[in-house]
Amino acid sequence: MPGDLASHLPVKPLDLGILIVLERGRDYGYQIVKRVAEPAAGGLRLSPSNLYHVLDRMIRDGLVEDLGREARDDGPPRRFFGITPLGRAVLDAELARVRAVVRAAGTADATG
């Protein structure tokens, strides 16, 4: 269900990386692939062909929107994507969930 926040949690690592990238601003396919590979977005490797499959699913889920193609002077038009309000809410909820897990792990008795 696109509108149900809880149904999107936990977020898959690749989806989380894409949401992190798009939260910074709209972007196009090849740049998304490059930025998801950066440590700040998860350091995940993704092929461009797989990216569009993932983005199409995230669009159907209401997390990402297709902003259309934009002409460029230096090459063919690029297809841009952006994060939706639901995508931002899911990203915020997932980051809060992960932070809580990290805090709990930090207080756990590692010696057993």
Describe the oligomeric state of these chains in a short phrase: single chain
Query: How many helices in DSSP terms?
Result: 4
First and last CA, distance: 41 Å
Order of helices and strands: HEHHEEH
**Ranges with pLDDT <50 over ≥5 residues?**
none
Average per-residue pLDDT, rounded, comes to 91
Structure description:
This protein has 112 residues and is α+β, with helices and mostly antiparallel strands. It has one domain (5-99): Winged helix-like DNA-binding domain superfamily/Winged helix DNA-binding domain (Arc Repressor Mutant, subunit A, Orthogonal Bundle). 49% of the residues lie in helices and 18% in strands. The protein has 4 helices and 3 strands; from the N terminus they run αβααββα. The protein has a 3-stranded antiparallel sheet. Strand 2 and strand 3 form a beta hairpin. Helix 1 packs across helix 4. The protein is globular, with a radius of gyration of 16 Å. It starts with 12 loop residues before the first helix and ends in a 5-residue tail after the last helix. The mean pLDDT is 91.
Provide tags for this entry:
single chain; 112 residues; alpha+beta; Arc Repressor Mutant, subunit A; 3-stranded antiparallel β-sheet; globular
Topology:
Layout: H1 13-23, E1 27-28, H2 29-36, H3 48-60, E2 64-72, E3 75-83, H4 85-107
Antiparallel strand pairs: 1-3, 2-3
Helix pairs in contact: 1-4
